[in-house]
Amino acid sequence: MSTPGRVRRVARVRQRMAEVGVDALLLSLGADLPWLTGYRAMPLERLTVLVLPREGDAVLLVPELEAPRVPDSDGVFTLRPWSEREDPFGLAAELVRAGAGAHGVLAVSDRAWAGALLALQDRLPEARWRPGSSVTAPLRAVKDPDEVAVLRAAAQAADRVAAALQHGDVPLVGRSEREVSAEIGARLVAEGHERVNFAIVGSGPNGASPHHEAGERRIVVGDVVVCDFGGELRVGEGLAYCSDITRTVVTAPPDPEVRDCYAVLYAAQRAGVAAARASVPAEDVDAAARTVIEEAGLGDRFIHRTGHGIGIEEHEDPYLVAGNRTPLEVGHAFSVEPGIYVPGRFGMRLEDIVVVGDDGPEALNTVDHSLVVVEA
Fold first, then answer.
1. Number of domains in the chain
2. Which residues of the chain carry a pLDDT beneath 50?
3. Residue 18, pLDDT score
């Protein structure tokens, strides 16, 4: 991201800190740090933390051996490498006291190591603590046009892999789920992804487990096969953003039960996408999809929320689930992925990434949504 873009993000974060009464933000492991600085910390036991007071200079405290990996701050923060002979938690506490005072309200990364948080709390006993997401999540959830462009590129790359699956270019019958998963992952990389986050392949009865780990079961004629996959794609020198798509295929013409269930699923997914408009509560998208399935008498077969936000993490705000009254905004990006699962027999899911636009929802995934027969 350009320097002006980072400066704008820091300004938005500080405005949000003032709104929610946070005196300093401490960003460690997780996606908040690269979102704000361009630097993704390695998941080490050594402390990395950006200390960002509501007012004053931001300081990025990193292990000395990691300092060469930190990109140019362009004046957004000061880099402070610490040596193995120093106490990084004491240094962090000093920075907090200087910028926010000993009794301040501190927001810390949700993904920070528990050990790091406990050590910081020990050195700042008078401080009050909140999750960092109370500051950053609403800001990260609203994507700017550049972020949407990368999400769109990632979705289009995933679409090309899904199209190859539907066209029979990824053989299924006679192969293990693990073999198919590996090929899907390799195709994601070939399409420009630098990392594969997951490649779920659930065949036959395994498809009834939404997060099934691809195993040695061999796909046979007549199987319903759920393929849910995604990874991270980078455009230029910016951050990588995630793809996530699910398409369900069958290895022979489906029997009436499977065909009828899929017709319900298709209608539910379309209803969820259509409901995803600005000012609509997030839970209403879940309700739109769920109502279709419930009215078909299959409500107990839909066992998860309708969707999750997506960006530089595969799961982030907003979550499309009952109880989340957060109004959707232009720039919100999330999955719409209802599923129907019949234990011991089959499962099916249909998923697109959707962005809320000025004129309504834009589904970033456009590859065939029908129940494709793949006899290869």
1. 2
2. none
3. 97
